[in-house]
Specification:
Blueprint: H1 11-28, H2 36-53, H3 59-76, H4 79-90, H5 95-102, H6 107-133
Helix pairs in contact: 1-2, 3-6, 4-6, 5-6
């Protein structure tokens, strides 16, 4: 990547973004035999060119779109579910701390409620992805 004009610290992000995109593309295709190396290198070259051109087809642009979709999915959740997820994921609170904050009777119930909110979010994301793929 350095030869193509990118800093070493950007290489893992570009590489992993292209790898994830290629994996998603291959999952959606029904072909049995694909030369992965050629497919991946072509996708990597396209990404490098789009980054150099500043094109809106780059992985970074698609990642921003994914972030926007994820934010929309979270906004669909009720306030309690959002607050639970923010407390667990963003603030990295333990279930015991969540129990105290949300006044649950014990940490097991707090864990159950967090998992319930995560499952709701997963269902919303799956629906959103299926709708956008069609």
């Amino acid at each position: 990547m350095r030869i193509r004009g990118f800093r070493d610290e950007h290489t893992p992000q570009i590489f992993s973004g292209v790898l994830a995109a290629v994996y998603a593309d291959l999952r959606n295709q029904q072909q049995e035999h694909i030369d992965f190396e050629t497919y991946f290198l072509n996708a990597l070259n396209k990404e490098i060119e789009s980054l150099k051109d500043g094109s809106k087809n780059s992985i970074e642009y698609r990642a921003q779109q994914s972030t926007d979709v994820a934010a929309q999915c979270v906004s669909i959740l009720d306030e309690q579910a959002q607050a639970l997820l923010f407390a667990r994921v963003s603030e990295q609170l333990s279930y015991e701390q969540i129990k105290e904050r949300f006044q649950f009777s014990n940490a097991v119930i707090a864990e159950y409620e967090v998992h319930k909110a995560l499952n709701q979010l997963a269902g919303i994301v799956k629906l959103r992805m299926n709708i956008s793929q069609n």
